[in-house]
Structure formats: structure tokens, C-alpha cells
Write a structure and sequence with these properties.
ABC_transporter_permease; 0% strand; mainly alpha; cell membrane; membrane; MetI-like fold; 14 helices
Length: 297
């Protein structure tokens, strides 16, 4: 081992075993993820169909992408689903965490119940909510069976409401994880802060709004990144609940990419759409990385 002039081990050889053990992971990240990403971006500028080929056509695939009504519909749906999912996930998750933080009885039981949906796959969640929202034997059928014959509730079969039916399923599955993250942040707040707020006569809602929430900024930022990255990749719920219908009213970018790459056998168009999704994720990740690491350095 090479020593520095001060007699201490050279930084290059510190934690050498750990560095050697991380080599396979680094190679995997560089070769598969970075290499695959670069390969996808390059072929998004080609007219590849069934098989990839380096026949460059410039920005033709992107021009076609942004003039396709199906892609524009998927972006609109993603914006609606994403904005509402972000807001409601944070609000519901934080409220549930604040309630559990009151040291209530059977806290472990409630925490397990709220977190359990997150253990299910999105396919299972989508099928469950497809049954619940089905007008023939779901909520509408049950309510009409109780005597309200005029009651109507079939969002998955209404073009204007279908994205909100998918939102119900997404919130049901993901809110439990947000609750656990928020609860961990609340449990990290010093008890003396709560005592000081009570002594000063500060209402609890003001304590949360002006003291606790600002102290939980790292938790909120991390939670936002987790939720946002999941929103961009939403696919399973849509396929399980509606398959993009009715009449492509619930189309999302991930399904657009899958259909063009495997069903339509148009790799160039699929690569262009996936590159736009990658750009969206980068817009989310880069500011988060700067907030977490750049400013700290």
C-alpha cells in the first residue's frame, strides 16, 4: 500500500475491499444503464422499424411524436394524474402520519393497514379497482342495490373521468409509503420543540405549518422525487384497469412507448418517446441532486 508523505495511507487505497466489491455494480451501471440510455437516444434519430438500424433522419421522429394526437393525450393525462397525485399523496400521507404520531393505541396495526396496499403489485391493484369501479358489480351496483336506483358511478367507462378512476387506485396504493416517510420525519423532530410550542401557547396547526414542515424539507424533497419518478413510469395501473381506453382516453407515455416498440414495431418512434420520458425524469432528478448534494458541498 502506497503511503503519503505524512505517513498516512493514500486516499486511493482507503476502503480498498469495499471499492473492489463495488466494481461489478459500477460496470453494470455504466455498461447497461448508461450504455443502454445512449444507445436509445442515438436510435431515436433513426427510422428504425422492426430492427434497429443507423439510418439517421434527424428530428423526424420527434416532430412526428409531438404532432400525434395519441401522444398529446398521454401527456395531458400524465399532467392531470401527476399533479393531483403529488398533491393528494403528500396531503393525505402527512395527515395520516400526523395522526399516528399522536401515540394512538394500535398504532402498529393502523400503520400495517395503511402500508399494506404498497406491498401489492400495480397489476393486482389495478384489477381490484377495476372490479370496484365496474358499474355491473362494483360501487354503483352496491349503492343501487340499497335503493338509490338513479345513482351513477362508472369513471372507468367515461372518457372525461377515466383518468380520475386510475388516480383513485394510485392513491390507494402509494399513500401508505408517503405516510411512513412522513412519520419517520416527524419522529425525528426533537420533543423539546413540541414542549416549547405548547408552553408558548402556539396552536398545533401553526406548529406544524411554520415549524415542523420547514424542518422536514429533506423528507418532503425525497418524497416528491419518489412520487414523481413513479408518476412518469405509470403503466401497470392503466393496463390493468382500462388498457388505455375508452378510445385511448387513459393513454399514458409509458404505454405509448410499449405499444410502438412491440405492437406497432416502430422502434424509432418508441425510442423518441422513451427519450422524452428520460428527459422528464432528468428534470426531476437533477434539481433534487443539486438540493441534496450540491448546496451541502
Amino acid at each position: 500500500m502506497t503511503d503519503s508523505p505524512t505517513g498516512r495511507p493514500n486516499k486511493l487505497f482507503r476502503n480498498l475491499n469495499a471499492k473492489i466489491a463495488s466494481v461489478p455494480m459500477i460496470l453494470t451501471a455504466v455498461v447497461i444503464f448508461v450504455g443502454g440510455t445512449g444507445w436509445t437516444i442515438v436510435h431515436s434519430f433513426t427510422n428504425s422499424r422492426l430492427l434497429p438500424r443507423l439510418n439517421f433522419v434527424g428530428l423526424d421522429q420527434y416532430e412526428r411524436l409531438w404532432t400525434t394526437p395519441r401522444w398529446l393525450t398521454s401527456i395531458e393525462n400524465l399532467l392531470i394524474y401527476g399533479s393531483l397525485s403529488l398533491v393528494f399523496s403528500l396531503v393525505i400521507g402527512f395527515v395520516l402520519a400526523a395522526l399516528l404520531d399522536q401515540k394512538i393505541r394500535f398504532e402498529d396495526t393502523f400503520r400495517t393497514i395503511f402500508l399494506y396496499p404498497f406491498a401489492l403489485s400495480f397489476i393486482v391493484t389495478g384489477l381490484v379497482w377495476q372490479w370496484l369501479l365496474n358499474p355491473d358489480f362494483g360501487v354503483q351496483h352496491v349503492v343501487r342495490g340499497l335503493g338509490w336506483e338513479s345513482f351513477s358511478f362508472n369513471p372507468l367507462y367515461t372518457k372525461e373521468l377515466v383518468i380520475y378512476g386510475i388516480l383513485f387506485a394510485g392513491l390507494w396504493q402509494g399513500t401508505g409509503l408517503v405516510m411512513c416517510l412522513m412519520l419517520a420525519g416527524l419522529r425525528g423532530i426533537d420533543e423539546d420543540i413540541w414542549k416549547a410550542a405548547r408552553v408558548d401557547g402556539i396552536p398545533m396547526w401553526k406548529t406544524y405549518l411554520f415549524i415542523v414542515i420547514p424542518m422536514m424539507r429533506p423528507v418532503f424533497v425525497t418524497t416528491l422525487v419518489i412520487i414523481a419518478s413513479g408518476i412518469v413510469r405509470v403503466y401497470d395501473l392503466v393496463v390493468a384497469q382500462t388498457s388505455g381506453g375508452p378510445a385511448l382516453a387513459s393513454e399514458v407515455p409509458a404505454k405509448y412507448v410499449y405499444d410502438y416498440m412491440f405492437a406497432a414495431q416502430n422502434l424509432g418512434q418508441g425510442f423518441a418517446a422513451s427519450t422524452m420520458m428520460l428527459l422528464t425524469v432528468a428534470i426531476i432528478i437533477v434539481p433534487w441532486a443539486y438540493l441534496e448534494f450540491g448546496r451541502r458541498r
